[in-house]
Design a protein that fits this description.
single chain, 99 residues, mainly alpha, elongated
Length: 99
């Protein structure tokens, strides 16, 4: 690989960032579950709020997975396009006369 070629950027996130995100998510989920459990309302309202919390949590994971998959797909397409351009450029001879 020459110095003029662009490298695919590596992930700028660190282990500390992942730990902070996981701890933040865990604290938010525990706080919400605690609030639902200690809310002075009827059990059916508490169950409804708990179900809403569960749905929101699973939806957040699904959304994060979809965003990650879209970014990975875009990176693969970019690498394929770059490989095609490199193949075309390697076959091109600028000094060959036109037919």
């Amino acid at each position: 690989m020459t110095s003029t070629e662009k490298k695919t950027p590596s992930s700028p996130t660190t282990t500390a960032f992942y730990a902070q995100a996981a701890i933040s998510f865990g604290l938010a989920l525990v706080a919400m579950v605690g609030a639902v459990l200690y809310l002075p309302v009827d059990p059916w309202i508490r169950a409804f709020l708990a179900l809403g919390t569960l749905y929101l949590t699973t939806s957040a994971f699904t959304l994060a997975k979809c965003v990650r998959d879209a970014q990975e797909s875009q990176a693969v397409m970019t690498r394929l396009d770059q490989a095609r351009v490199d193949a075309i450029l390697s076959q091109h001879d600028p000094f060959r006369p036109l037919a």
